[in-house]
UniProtKB/TrEMBL annotation:
Residue ranges annotated for the HAMP domain, each copy included: 188-241
An annotated GO cellular component: plasma membrane
Regions crossing the membrane: 165-191
Compartments (UniProt record): Cell membrane
Protein name per Swiss-Prot or TrEMBL: histidine kinase
Keywords in alphabetical order: Kinase, Membrane, Phosphoprotein, Transferase, Transmembrane, Transmembrane helix, Two-component regulatory system
Enzyme class at the top of the EC tree: transferase
An example molecular function term from Gene Ontology annotations: phosphorelay sensor kinase activity
Length: 490
């Protein structure tokens, strides 16, 4: 996260450096070019004054030699031309060669011969390659007899400007480097508690209520936030623990009185008259007592299993190896067929209380409630989602999907959402033993491991009247250790 902060600070620093450095760089370039232009104006002004005297007296040899020495010393062709553009004095060859390479010469010379001082030619930017052409009219009063023209190559001047710009850029980078050097550790110090708080929130969302944030690191505001977060989690954990303790204690304390009541009711059986309604009422009372005992056992088991909130990695092959034979015996006793089609080597995070307990409940529902002929257990590996968020561990690492399907009665689509609620039972199963807690507890435990339990259509019914029931468990893939042994297929 501190990289995000730097991603904001660095562009701001660059803009600040640019805002300060660009005008300064432009000023340096303008000053260099203006100084060069003023020097050339001074040179051509002096040569124009000398040329006026030389042309009027006919003594041109001294000026011609001076123009040649000027070209030899500075490399700048300087020539005196007449109104037709012919070179009268100066290095004619060098001037004509430079004039052919510079398209601004005709315009500036024409203006000078018309009696006007030339404006600067070309661009002054360091990346431009045009020359600086300066012309000064030569004449007495309003009569112009010629012009002095210089054509200056500015490559050296532009090179000096680039060097100055590089120096300014280097100086501008120093505060930027200093800003990054200071902002990096500061942003890490500020944002480290935020990352830890985010990680703690992610673990809490997966059911781990024991995690706490570090309330001793970072700025004062974040320490207060972490302290408030920990206080809130203490209250939540205490409330959940009290709730579970109440369910467990209540079910445990009610078990003994309920057992005594059942024994008392069953002791009445010898005293019932063979004829009469007493036998029917006796059977109803015993059945209700048995249902209450099953309910209390389920509540106590639920509280015990939900107290374990940590998901742990497990090999699916190892879980099935301890369960499949029992499932086959149960399905055979019920006159049903069990089909297990699970690829080997799948490793996943099992829910609190164990994956075997969840699968036992799903198989039990298929045997007791579906009236099916075939029960099928399948599993497959779903690859990681490419668009998974960094905190979405389930989608980022892939999912193992385990499905328990049958070809029995099934559940209507409208009833599937209600089937995952506690104590809900289908109207068709009111006379079948059960508490309505099994699927709801399984869904809670699977969700605590970062997975999902959903209900779908099952296998096609043999008579073609529709589909049976399917319970699908999707759990995150667990990383396999490098030295883990390969599991054998079921």
């Amino acid at each position: 996260m501190h990289r995000r902060l730097l991603a904001v600070l660095v562009p701001l620093a660059v803009l600040l450096v640019a805002a300060l450095g660009v005008p300064l760089s432009v000023t340096v370039a303008e000053r260099e070019m203006q100084e060069t232009y003023v020097d050339r104006l001074g040179d051509v002004g002096r040569f124009a004054s000398l040329a006026e005297t030389a042309l009027s007296t006919g003594r041109t040899e001294a000026l011609h030699q001076e123009l040649a020495r000027y070209h030899q010393l500075y490399g700048i062709p300087a020539a005196v031309i007449d109104t037709s553009g012919t070179v009268l004095l100066g290095p004619a060859g060098a001037y004509q060669e430079a004039a052919r390479a510079e398209p601004a010469v005709p315009r500036i010379v024409t203006a000078a011969l018309a009696g006007a001082r030339s404006e600067p030619s070309g661009e002054w930017a360091p990346w431009d390659d045009s020359a600086l052409v300066v012309a000064e009219p030569v004449g007495r009063d309003s009569e112009v007899v010629g012009a002095v023209v210089t054509i200056s190559d500015l490559s050296q001047t532009r090179g000096h400007i680039l060097v100055r710009w590089a120096q300014l850029a280097a100086l501008g980078l120093l505060p930027l480097i200093a800003l990054v050097a200071v902002a990096w550790p500061v942003s890490a110090w500020v944002l480290r508690p935020v990352r830890e708080l985010d990680a703690a929130s992610a673990r809490i969302s997966r059911g781990d209520l024991t995690i706490r944030a570090d309330a001793e690191a970072g700025p004062v505001e974040l320490r207060r936030l972490a302290g408030s977060f920990n206080t809130m989690m203490d209250a939540v954990e205490n409330a959940v623990q009290r709730q579970r303790a109440f369910v467990s204690d209540a079910s445990h304390q009610l078990r003994n009185p309920l057992t005594s009541l059942r024994l008392a009711v069953e002791s009445l059986e010898p005293h019932l008259r063979p004829a009469g309604d007493g036998r029917q009422l006796y059977d109803v009372a015993v059945d209700e007592l048995k249902a209450m005992q099953r309910m209390l056992n389920s509540l106590q088991a639920s509280a015990r299993m939900e107290s374990i909130r940590t998901a742990s990695p497990v090999d699916l092959d190892a879980v099935l190896a301890t369960r499949v034979n029992r499932w086959r015996a149960l399905t055979a006793a019920a006159g049903q067929t069990l089909v297990v089609n699970v690829p080997p080597g799948l490793r996943l995070l099992e829910p609190p209380g164990g994956l075997g307990s969840v699968l036992d409940e799903l198989i039990s529902n298929a045997l007791r409630l579906s009236g099916s002929q075939t029960v099928q257990v399948t599993a497959q590996l779903s690859p990681a989602a490419p668009d998974a968020a960094p905190g979405d561990a389930a989608r980022a690492g892939g999912l193992v999907t385990i499905a328990v399907r049958d070809d029995g009665q099934g559940i209507d689509v409208a009833e599937r959402a209600q089937a995952l609620r506690r104590f809900w039972r289908s109207p068709r199963h009111q006379n079948v033993s059960g508490t309505g807690l099994g699927l709801a507890i399984c869904a809670d435990l699977v969700g605590a491991a970062g997975g999902e339990l959903r209900l779908e259509d099952g296998l096609p019914r043999p008579d073609g009247s529709g589909h049976g029931f399917a319970a699908v468990v999707a759990l995150p893939v667990a990383a396999r250790a490098a030295a883990a042994d390969a599991a054998s297929p079921v």
